[in-house]
Amino acid sequence: QARLVESGGGLVQAGGSLRLSCTASDITFSKYAMGWFRQAPGKEREFVAAISRSGVNLHYADSVKGRFIISRDNTKNTVYLQMNSLKPEDTAVYSCAADYTPGAPIIAMIPSEYDYWGQGTQVTVSS
Protein backbone atom coordinates (compact mmCIF):
# COMPACT_ATOMS: atom_id res chain seq x y z
CA GLN A 1 0.00 0.00 0.00
CA ALA A 2 1.42 3.35 -1.04
CA ARG A 3 2.22 5.86 1.66
CA LEU A 4 2.73 9.60 1.35
CA VAL A 5 4.05 11.56 4.31
CA GLU A 6 4.14 15.36 4.39
CA SER A 7 6.36 17.50 6.57
CA GLY A 8 7.45 21.10 6.91
CA GLY A 9 4.24 22.79 7.95
CA GLY A 10 4.05 25.25 10.80
CA LEU A 11 3.27 28.77 11.91
CA VAL A 12 4.81 31.66 10.00
CA GLN A 13 4.22 35.40 9.78
CA ALA A 14 2.81 36.97 6.65
CA GLY A 15 5.58 37.50 4.13
CA GLY A 16 7.53 34.54 5.38
CA SER A 17 8.43 31.25 3.74
CA LEU A 18 8.00 27.55 4.34
CA ARG A 19 9.08 24.48 2.41
CA LEU A 20 6.84 21.44 2.47
CA SER A 21 8.11 17.98 1.65
CA CYS A 22 6.21 14.83 0.74
CA THR A 23 8.00 11.51 0.67
CA ALA A 24 6.43 8.50 -0.98
CA SER A 25 7.00 4.84 -0.28
CA ASP A 26 5.82 1.59 -1.87
CA ILE A 27 5.20 3.16 -5.27
CA THR A 28 7.35 3.60 -8.37
CA PHE A 29 7.59 7.32 -7.75
CA SER A 30 8.86 8.22 -11.22
CA LYS A 31 5.62 6.93 -12.78
CA TYR A 32 3.44 9.30 -10.79
CA ALA A 33 2.59 12.92 -11.32
CA MET A 34 2.45 14.67 -7.96
CA GLY A 35 0.16 17.38 -6.75
CA TRP A 36 -0.32 19.64 -3.77
CA PHE A 37 -3.78 20.56 -2.58
CA ARG A 38 -5.01 22.55 0.40
CA GLN A 39 -8.15 22.80 2.45
CA ALA A 40 -9.04 25.63 4.77
CA PRO A 41 -11.70 25.27 7.49
CA GLY A 42 -15.18 25.37 6.01
CA LYS A 43 -13.88 25.38 2.43
CA GLU A 44 -13.53 22.83 -0.32
CA ARG A 45 -10.20 21.24 -1.11
CA GLU A 46 -8.44 23.28 -3.77
CA PHE A 47 -5.63 22.65 -6.19
CA VAL A 48 -2.32 24.38 -5.46
CA ALA A 49 0.34 22.98 -7.78
CA ALA A 50 1.29 19.85 -9.71
CA ILE A 51 4.32 18.43 -11.43
CA SER A 52 4.58 15.72 -14.06
CA ARG A 53 6.46 12.50 -13.42
CA SER A 54 9.72 13.75 -14.90
CA GLY A 55 9.31 17.31 -13.66
CA VAL A 56 9.03 18.77 -17.16
CA ASN A 57 5.47 20.03 -16.80
CA LEU A 58 4.34 22.26 -13.95
CA HIS A 59 1.06 23.93 -13.19
CA TYR A 60 0.01 26.36 -10.48
CA ALA A 61 -3.22 27.79 -9.20
CA ASP A 62 -3.50 31.48 -10.04
CA SER A 63 -3.60 32.31 -6.33
CA VAL A 64 -0.07 30.99 -5.76
CA LYS A 65 1.58 31.63 -9.12
CA GLY A 66 4.80 33.58 -8.68
CA ARG A 67 4.98 32.78 -4.96
CA PHE A 68 5.08 28.96 -4.75
CA ILE A 69 7.45 26.57 -6.50
CA ILE A 70 6.86 22.85 -6.89
CA SER A 71 9.77 20.51 -7.54
CA ARG A 72 10.64 16.86 -7.18
CA ASP A 73 13.62 14.60 -6.63
CA ASN A 74 12.90 11.17 -8.07
CA THR A 75 16.05 9.76 -6.46
CA LYS A 76 14.55 10.58 -3.05
CA ASN A 77 10.89 9.81 -3.87
CA THR A 78 10.10 13.31 -2.68
CA VAL A 79 8.12 16.27 -3.96
CA TYR A 80 8.56 19.76 -2.51
CA LEU A 81 6.50 22.90 -2.30
CA GLN A 82 8.48 26.06 -1.63
CA MET A 83 6.07 28.70 -0.38
CA ASN A 84 7.25 32.33 -0.38
CA SER A 85 5.53 35.61 0.40
CA LEU A 86 2.94 33.77 2.43
CA LYS A 87 -0.39 35.42 3.12
CA PRO A 88 -2.97 34.74 5.84
CA GLU A 89 -5.28 33.33 3.15
CA ASP A 90 -2.72 30.59 2.50
CA THR A 91 -3.61 29.11 5.90
CA ALA A 92 -4.84 25.55 5.35
CA VAL A 93 -4.00 21.88 5.65
CA TYR A 94 -1.73 21.05 2.74
CA SER A 95 -1.80 17.53 1.31
CA CYS A 96 0.24 15.88 -1.38
CA ALA A 97 -1.20 13.37 -3.81
CA ALA A 98 0.08 10.91 -6.42
CA ASP A 99 -1.49 10.32 -9.84
CA TYR A 100 -0.37 7.24 -11.80
CA THR A 101 0.68 8.50 -15.25
CA PRO A 102 3.11 5.99 -16.76
CA GLY A 103 2.50 6.87 -20.38
CA ALA A 104 2.56 10.64 -20.63
CA PRO A 105 3.90 13.71 -18.79
CA ILE A 106 0.42 14.91 -17.87
CA ILE A 107 -0.72 16.60 -14.73
CA ALA A 108 -4.16 16.83 -13.19
CA MET A 109 -5.81 19.54 -11.16
CA ILE A 110 -8.84 17.58 -10.01
CA PRO A 111 -8.59 15.67 -6.70
CA SER A 112 -10.50 12.67 -8.05
CA GLU A 113 -7.74 12.06 -10.61
CA TYR A 114 -5.27 11.24 -7.86
CA ASP A 115 -4.72 7.72 -6.57
CA TYR A 116 -2.97 8.23 -3.25
CA TRP A 117 -3.04 10.95 -0.63
CA GLY A 118 -1.01 11.98 2.37
CA GLN A 119 -2.56 12.93 5.69
CA GLY A 120 -1.67 16.59 5.37
CA THR A 121 0.36 19.17 7.23
CA GLN A 122 -0.99 22.36 8.78
CA VAL A 123 0.25 25.70 7.51
CA THR A 124 -0.80 28.76 9.48
CA VAL A 125 0.10 32.27 8.35
CA SER A 126 -0.41 35.03 10.90
CA SER A 127 -1.05 38.64 9.92
Describe the structure.
This protein has 127 residues and is mainly beta. Helices cover 0% and strands 50% of the residues. It contains no helices and eleven strands. The protein has strands spanning 3-7, 10-13, 18-25, 32-39, 46-51, 58-60, 68-73, 78-83, 92-100, 116-117, 121-126. A hairpin with a 4-residue loop joins β7 and β8 (78-83). It starts with a strand and ends with a strand. The model has no long low-confidence stretch (mean pLDDT 96).
What would the principal axes of the Cα set say about the shape?
Answer: globular
Low-confidence stretches: none
Listing every helix as H and every strand as E from the N terminus to the C terminus, the arrangement reads EEEEEEEEEEE
Could you say which structural class the secondary elements and strand pairing correspond to?
Answer: mainly beta
Tally of helical segments? 0
Notable traits:
127 residues, mainly beta, four-stranded antiparallel beta sheet, seven-stranded mixed beta sheet
Question: What is this entry, summarized?
Answer:
With 127 residues, the protein is mainly β. It is built from no helices and eleven strands. It is globular and about 45 Å long.
